[in-house]
Structure formats: structure tokens, C-alpha cells
Design a protein that fits this description.
- This protein is of the alpha/beta class and 205 residues long.
- The chain has a single domain, classed as Vaccinia Virus protein VP39 (Rossmann fold), CATH 3.40.50.150.
- It is built from 10 helices and 6 strands.
- The N terminus and C terminus are likely disordered.
Length: 205
């Protein structure tokens, strides 16, 4: 795993375009939500926001979001998360984590998210897209993801993600998006600080 994402295809699938490679890519495409569906569930982001995108889709989701709003400013993971990052290193306003947590060992997930929280802006919005286990599509997704990444894959369901975020992202409230209704078992949760001033003004959370 590099920069929070998924490393390149292992040699057994990354070489050539044989029938197995094509079949696994097709299975993966059938199981996992397309970037367009995920982007449709992401709210409009404040213009000019800096965004740290850790995704396993080759950048397709980030490309869609920046086309929708060209003022977004993507950050390189290294400049935000490097161990030797200076105190004035950029702190993202938006942190996008898509289909990455299930490649992180369960024992390391809380620390992984806590590290992102530590390096993000104080009012940062976290967008976490994941894939729930179970069912035919879940098993298909698991098999294809294991074969493509060459890594152990351990999906987590929405209650598990909420519990994880409660520990790793304290003070941030969870908000459900309609992705699960569109392309189950794919789902997406938003985590952000509640704006008490907006609630008091009747403008929602």
C-alpha cells in the first residue's frame, strides 16, 4: 500500500491482457460503485477547498469532483502525511477515503483514520466510501479486490465504520448518503463537525 491507496496489480495479474485479467477487471467493475455514482452522493464542497484524496480507483473520483468544481485544490498525500512534514504543511479541508479502509488491517484502521484527522484542518469534512460484506455482489467484490490488489481484503459494514469513526474522529457527526440505495453494498458516509450556529438558525446541521 502506498500513500494510503492500493498498490499496483501484482505480477500475476498485471502482466499482459489475458482472459483472467480481463475477467477480474470485469468482476470488479460489476461489484464496485462507479465513480459517477459516488460523486453524485457527495455534497457540493466549499469553493477553493483543499482536498486530500486517498482512493483505489486511479483518481477517477477526484477527477469528477474537480471537473464539477475546478476551484478545488488537490493535495499530494506525501506533502500532508509525510513523517517529516513541516508544521506549516497544508491541512486539507476535505479528506476523501474511497475503498481504502478494507485494505488496512483491522487493528490499524483506528490509527490510520486518527492520523488523517490529526493532519486535516480543524473543520475538515471526511468522505468515506466503503463496501459492505455479504451477498453475491459482496463475495464477487471480495474475490476481485483480493486478486487485483494482491492484499488481504476485509470489508466493514456501516455500523463498524460508524464505531471506528467515533473513536478515530472524535467530535465529528456521521451522515448517511444515498449511495447504498443506488449501488448496494457500496455505501458512503460523511463525517463533519456539527455547526451549532446553523442549527440555532434553523439551517440544518
Amino acid at each position: 500500500m502506498v500513500s494510503g491507496g492500493v498498490r499496483a496489480l501484482p505480477a500475476r495479474l498485471g502482466e499482459g491482457q489475458g482472459w483472467l485479467t480481463r475477467a477480474v477487471h470485469a468482476w470488479h467493475g460489476l461489484a464496485f460503485a462507479h465513480a459517477e455514482s459516488v460523486a453524485a452522493c457527495v455534497p457540493e464542497l466549499p469553493p477553493g477547498s483543499t482536498i486530500l484524496a486517498l482512493t483505489a480507483d486511479g483518481g477517477a473520483l477526484l477527477d469528477l469532483l474537480t471537473r464539477r468544481d475546478p476551484t478545488l485544490r488537490p493535495l499530494e498525500p506525501e506533502e500532508v502525511l509525510a513523517d517529516d512534514a513541516p508544521p506549516d504543511a497544508p491541512r486539507p479541508d476535505v479528506v476523501l477515503v474511497a475503498d481504502v479502509l478494507h485494505h488496512v488491517a483491522p487493528r490499524d484502521r483506528e490509527r490510520y483514520l486518527a492520523r488523517l484527522r490529526e493532519r486535516a484542518a480543524s473543520e475538515a469534512l471526511f468522505i468515506v466510501k466503503e463496501f459492505a460484506p455479504g451477498g453475491v455482489r459482496g463475495r464477487l467484490g471480495w474475490l476481485a479486490d483480493c486478486m487485483l490488489s494482491g492484499e488481504p481484503v476485509r470489508f466493514l459494514n456501516p455500523p463498524e465504520l460508524r464505531g471506528l469513526a467515533a473513536r478515530a474522529l472524535p467530535g465529528l457527526a456521521a451522515f448517511w448518503t444515498p449511495l447504498y440505495e443506488i449501488e448496494p453494498p457500496n455505501y458512503c458516509l460523511l463525517f463533519r463537525r456539527l455547526r451549532r450556529d446553523r442549527i440555532a438558525a434553523g439551517l440544518g446541521a
